[in-house]
Design goal:
Elements lengths: L2 E6 L13 H18 L4 H6 L2 E12 L8 E12 L2 E10 L4 E13 L10 H7 L6 E2 L14 E2 L3 E2 L13 H9 L10 E6 L8 E8 L3 E7 L5 E8 L10 E2 L2
Antiparallel strand pairs: 1-3, 2-5, 2-9, 3-4, 4-5, 6-13, 7-10, 8-10, 9-12, 10-11, 11-12
């Protein structure tokens, strides 16, 4: 089942140019999948009653055009595969002409909320989401990111209370907002991917590092022992057509 909701770009979602910010775009996507569950018998409260939660494992995003203050947009999502404890979900944001502003692919892990261990996905979720196997996005990017060896260490960032969500850990968008603060000023990109390696909690500290690659920039967030919380890659390609990546039924 493809789930959509209509909205309008708010001032609070824009940058100094009046453009939709990248974190706000990802918030649209995250909110859309949350609404999908709320409206299809899989609300967060019910999952918590069952001691279950979805943990985001990775993002892949391509940007095709800019959304501006006041633009009317449609945010859509659909689950397209379940495999043991893993769930896969696509997203799109389109303008009022139906043209794609951005598309994304994600991988989630279903977890036991108390033990924080993976749980096999059962028919309860399959029935609730109704997979869409014939409508897909091919972002042509490997899901795994190979860390660059050379890196520049950056100023540490302590996890703040506002970063914590209902899962009692740092929300996925907060890693991205933290990483973006270390991109060069006026750096532009239209391809993004990231992996969440482990959960961060209140009291943790991010130790960021930045690397230049042939195609763009990597930002990593380490813990005090040098283990990765998060790795992201921000790059550019010359193909700006959403039709190259979206296949309709």
């Amino acid at each position: 089942m493809i789930y959509s909701f209509n909205s309008r770009i708010r001032y609070s979602e824009t940058d100094k140019k009046g453009d939709l910010t990248f974190p706000a775009l990802l918030d649209y996507f995250q909110d859309t999948s949350t609404f999908h569950g709320e409206d299809n018998g899989l609300p967060l409260d019910l999952l918590y009653e069952k001691n279950l939660t979805w943990i985001l494992g990775s993002w892949q995003v391509r940007l095709f055009k800019t959304a501006k203050l006041g633009d009317r947009v449609t945010s859509s999502t659909w689950a397209y595969n379940f495999n043991h404890c893993l769930g896969y979900r696509h997203y799109s944001l389109s303008d009022d002409n139906g043209e794609y502003i951005a598309v994304a692919d994600t991988q989630y892990v279903l977890m036991d909320f108390a033990k924080m261990t993976p749980v096999e996905i059962d028919q309860f979720f399959v029935d609730g989401y109704t997979l869409e196997p014939d409508f897909h996005i091919n972002l042509k990017l490997p899901r795994k990111i190979r860390p660059a060896k050379e890196e520049e260490k950056l100023e540490a960032v302590a996890v703040q209370p506002h970063m914590i969500d209902t899962n009692k850990h740092v929300n996925n968008s907060q890693y991205i907002k933290t990483a973006m603060a270390f991109l060069p000023e006026d750096f532009s990109f239209n391809c993004f991917r990231c992996e969440y390696k482990k959960q961060a909690h209140l009291g943790d500290v991010f130790y960021p590092a930045r690397s230049k690659t042939d195609k763009g920039i990597q930002i990593k967030l380490y813990d005090a022992d040098g283990s990765l919380f998060f790795i992201s890659e921000w790059t550019t390609d010359n193909n700006q057509s959403g039709d190259q990546y979206v296949t309709n039924r």
